């Protein structure tokens, strides 16, 4: 597969796509009907369909009977942690093995020419990005994911969350299922923007940003406070007319869905001919430049707030201009303070 048909590689070996990132036409105004129809299959396949299917599988085979979940007990909570951990291990591990250990597609479509294992850094536990990321994923990531899941299931079992049945409310639930990714995008953008404020960035979010060159294990490598904020997306189902399966879909969208954004490759080669888009470039640019693309553009929030970078030269220029203006503002403020101090 020739990745140079789709992009270019610089001297450092970093690959970048030729085309600017296409954003979802969901909120385009005036509505772009044709673009919407063309985009819709990508909305479902393959990623969203995988996370929705995994929620159904969980409900059928993993989640304990409702009566058992009416009270909290170590048995079923430990069982849920174990299943989540095993699923994360195999799902994340499959990408890691395919792309980073066996390097089956070498550096084809890889944004950053280097592999994290080649670079030691003091920013990480044991100076190893992989070890640090894996430990954080299982110590606090899967733990907090499971805690939120347990809290929600307990709430459903005790009648504290609205639980509609698919038989009685098929259309309402279909609509909620459809907007699960939109809820995630809204929630993620808000909490992500919040933890980019100076104090929270320093104490919380910098942990995730240590991985400037993200790989699959970086997906859930976060500070516990960020894990809690991130998985809190399930709590929307405490007020939405919903169902435990959709709540699980929301959680899986966050937990398993973090992978595509951190895979580090623009396309994953499946067999000889098939390429699966990771849609990771927007979030890769976030890891590279920090203050662009707080969301993934399902809702064009970054466009509305002026922080969108689509990977093009224009996008780059817009970002540089924004940084320059901010620098000027800071310098002016500093000068004002100095004059003020001198006058005192
Ligand atoms: Zn990230
Ligand atoms: Zn960030």
UniProtKB/TrEMBL annotation:
Where in this chain does the record put each Fatty acid hydroxylase domain? 178-307
EC number per UniProt? 1.-.-.-
Q: Ligase as a keyword? A: no
Which residues are listed as membrane-spanning? 43-64, 76-102, 138-157, 169-190
| Keywords for this protein | Membrane, Oxidoreductase, Plasmid, Transmembrane, Transmembrane helix
This protein's species is Ensifer adhaerens
Q: Which PANTHER family match?
A: STEROL DESATURASE
Q: By what name is this protein known?
A: Sterol desaturase family protein
**Gene Ontology MF annotations:** oxidoreductase activity
Enzyme superclass (EC): oxidoreductase
UniProt superkingdom: Bacteria
The subcellular location is:
Membrane
């Amino acid at each position: 597969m020739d990745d140079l048909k789709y992009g270019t590689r610089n001297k450092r070996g970093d690959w970048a796509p030729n085309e600017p990132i296409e954003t979802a036409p969901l909120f385009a105004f005036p509505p772009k009907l044709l673009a919407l129809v063309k985009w819709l299959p990508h909305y479902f396949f393959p990623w969203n369909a995988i996370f929705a299917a995994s929620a159904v599988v969980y409900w059928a085979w993993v989640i304990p009977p409702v009566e058992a979940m009416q009270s909290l007990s170590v048995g079923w909570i430990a069982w849920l942690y174990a299943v989540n951990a095993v699923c994360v291990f195999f799902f994340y591990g499959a990408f890691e093995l395919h792309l980073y250990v066996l390097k089956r597609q070498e550096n084809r479509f890889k944004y950053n020419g280097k592999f994290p294992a080649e670079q030691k850094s003091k920013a990480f536990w044991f100076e190893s990005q992989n070890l640090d990321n894996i430990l954080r994923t299982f110590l606090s990531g899967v733990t907090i994911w499971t805690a939120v899941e347990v809290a929600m299931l307990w709430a459903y079992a005790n009648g504290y969350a609205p639980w509609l049945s698919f038989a009685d409310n098929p259309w309402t639930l279909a609509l909620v299922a459809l907007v699960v990714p939109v809820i995630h995008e809204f929630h993620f953008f808000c909490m992500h923007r919040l933890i980019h404020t100076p104090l929270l960035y320093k104490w919380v979010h910098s942990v995730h940003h240590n991985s400037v060159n993200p790989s699959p294990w970086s997906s859930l490598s976060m500070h516990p406070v960020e894990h809690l904020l991130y998985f809190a997306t399930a709590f929307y189902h405490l007020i939405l007319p919903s169902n435990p399966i959709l709540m699980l879909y929301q959680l899986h969208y966050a937990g398993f869905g973090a992978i595509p954004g951190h895979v580090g490759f623009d396309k994953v080669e499946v067999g000889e001919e098939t390429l699966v888009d990771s849609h990771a470039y927007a979030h890769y640019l976030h890891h590279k430049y920090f203050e662009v693309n707080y969301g993934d553009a399902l809702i064009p929030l970054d466009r509305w707030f002026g922080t969108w970078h689509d990977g093009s030269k224009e996008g780059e220029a817009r970002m540089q201009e924004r940084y320059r203006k901010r620098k000027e503002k800071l310098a002016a403020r500093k000068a004002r303070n100095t004059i003020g101090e001198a006058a005192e």
